[in-house]
User: Fold this.
Amino acid sequence: EPEVTQTPSHQVTQMGQEVILRCVPISNHLYFYWYRQILGQKVEFLVSFYNNEISEKSEIFDDQFSVERPDGSNFTLKIRSTKLEDSAMYFCASTGRGGSGANVLTFGAGSRLTVL
Amino acid sequence: RKEVEQDPGPFNVPEGATVAFNCTYSNSASQSFFWYRQDCRKEPKLLMSVYSSGNEDGRFTAQLNRASQYISLLIRDSKLSDSATYLCVVNLPEGGGNKLTFGTGTQLKVEL
Assistant:
């Protein structure tokens, strides 16, 4: 079964450092997403990406965050200067269909970010 | 009012029991509805989509009441392996994309 892969599985960083989380979406998917889940809290939308540009972003996705699809396979989330409150599990997801229909997202296993 | 609201539980039930989870959503323009399952420290995985007519998949039955903005999930003959957190998920139409909004989840523990 096709899957979304994420690296690293766990990253520990010092506050103020830059972090890049990487994702390889399912190969024929066109829409890509980042979600995050702070420990014990709900899964929250960060950003959606289509056709090499951000299609929507949440209030959480401020100027410290950026996304990029540098080649045909990787989709990255960069946090420029990490804060303690960025500690969370970050999930990448992808889907082959857009629009408001019954679209199913496939999630990666997540990258756990710990900011010290 | 929360966008998607669920009873956090936990629901502790014996094997073989029937258990029901409820969820309400605030935006009446929501168009797609799902139940996801999340095991501890794992990614959410789709359990089933929820259709207006209601739908069943084996031991799982989902219902949608658009008038009441209410979604339910029924699990029959529960098994130990059903222990997980069940996430009610709604696709809000903002921006026309697939911005899923998750509830906080309802934790289920199935016991011997």
Observations:
- The longest strand of chain B covers residues 84-92.
